[in-house]
Write a structure and sequence with these properties.
286 residues; alpha/beta; Metallo-beta-lactamase, Chain A; 7-stranded mixed β-sheet; 5-stranded mixed β-sheet; 9 helices
C-alpha cells in the first residue's frame, strides 16, 4: 500500500472541509474493509472513521463532520449493524472534522465517549481551536479521558492508546490486534493526527498554543516508528493510498496488509517536522 502520491499536494483542509460539508453526497464513500472486523466507515472520502466489531458491541473511532453523519449512519446500517451496537466512541483529537458529529453519535448510540484530556479546553475555553469553519459541532462532554496505562477493552478487542501531542495537545493514537477466520493476527495502528498546522514559533504564538508541541510531535513520531504495525489506518485518506486499493479488497485478499507503510508514514512526517524545528532554531538565532 504505497503512500498516497497526493499527500503533499492535496487541496488545503478548508477546501476539502467545505466540499464534504456542502456537497456530502459528492464525497460519499461506501464502507471499506481494512482488516478483519474493521471498516472505514465515515461516509466521505477525506476524513477517516473506523468501525470495529469486537464480537460484543462496536467501537467507533472518530465521527467526522456533522454534515456527513447521515452517510456514516447509512454505512453502519448497510453493514447490518444498529447504532445502539456502538458501545464506545474514541476521538483522536478535538478538531471539527473529527468531532463534528460526536454529540449526534453519542445521543443516537448511548455510547461512552473518550477524548485526550489536553484537548478538553478546546471544548470549554477555546472553541475557536476546533476549527469548525462555521459548520456544526454540537457541545458535548467526554465520559472519560485516555490514559496510556489503561487500555480500552470491548468484547475481544483491546485498544492501547498512546498520547501523541503535536497536531493538538491531546492528540491520541490507537493500536489494537484483530484475528481473521484462519487465526492469523493483524496489528492495526492509527496515528491520531499527522497534520503539520504551523511552521513557525510566531504562528504558534498567534494561535495561542505553545511551540513546544512541535517538539512533542517529533518525539511522538520517533516513539511510534518503533511500533510494529501490519495495517496502517490513516486519519485522512490523503496520508496513505487506501482509496487507490479499495477495489482490490476481497474476502481472501487484503491489500492493506503492508508492515512497511507505517514506518514510511512516520519517517515522511518526521522529515517534514524536523525541517520545521530547524526553522525554529533559526528564528532563535535571529
Amino acid at each position: 500500500m504505497p503512500l498516497n502520491s497526493t499527500s503533499l499536494t492535496s487541496p488545503p483542509a478548508p477546501v476539502l472541509m467545505e466540499h464534504c460539508c456542502r456537497q456530502p453526497w459528492e464525497t460519499y464513500m461506501e464502507p471499506i474493509k481494512m482488516a478483519p472486523g474493521v471498516w472505514y466507515i465515515s461516509g466521505n472520502d477525506w476524513v477517516a472513521c473506523y468501525l470495529i466489531d469486537t464480537g460484543d458491541g462496536l467501537i467507533l473511532i472518530d465521527t467526522a463532520m456533522h454534515e456527513t453523519c447521515y452517510l456514516m449512519i447509512e454505512n453502519i446500517r448497510k453493514l447490518g449493524y444498529e447504532l445502539t451496537d456502538i458501545k464506545k466512541i474514541l476521538l483522536s483529537h478535538a478538531h471539527g472534522d473529527h468531532i463534528g458529529a460526536a454529540r449526534t453519535m453519542k445521543e443516537l448510540t448511548g455510547a461512552k465517549l473518550y477524548l485526550g484530556e489536553r484537548d478538553h479546553f478546546f471544548l470549554t475555553e477555546r472553541r475557536d481551536l476546533i476549527f469548525c469553519d462555521g459548520y456544526t459541532c454540537g457541545e458535548f462532554e467526554p465520559d472519560e479521558f485516555y490514559a496510556d496505562d489503561k487500555p480500552i477493552t470491548q468484547g475481544n478487542v483491546t485498544i492501547h492508546t498512546v498520547s501523541t501531542p503535536g497536531h493538538t495537545p491531546g492528540c491520541t493514537s490507537f493500536f489494537f490486534e484483530v484475528t481473521d477466520k484462519d487465526g492469523k493476527t493483524y496489528k492495526c495502528g492509527m496515528h491520531g493526527g499527522l497534520g503539520l498546522l504551523w511552521n513557525s514559533k510566531k504562528a504558534f504564538k498567534e494561535i495561542g498554543l505553545p511551540s513546544s508541541l512541535m517538539y512533542e510531535f517529533v518525539d511522538g513520531l520517533k516513539k511510534l516508528d518503533k511500533f510494529d504495525v501490519d495495517i496502517t489506518l490513516p486519519s485522512h485518506t490523503n496520508q496513505v493510498g487506501i482509496l487507490l486499493l479499495k477495489d482490490q479488497v476481497t474476502e481472501d485478499f487484503n491489500p492493506y496488509y503492508d508492515p512497511s507503510i507505517w514506518h514510511e508514514l512516520m519517517q515522511e512526517r518526521l522529515e517534514r517536522a524536523e525541517k520545521i524545528l530547524k526553522k525554529f532554531e533559526e528564528e532563535e538565532d535571529c
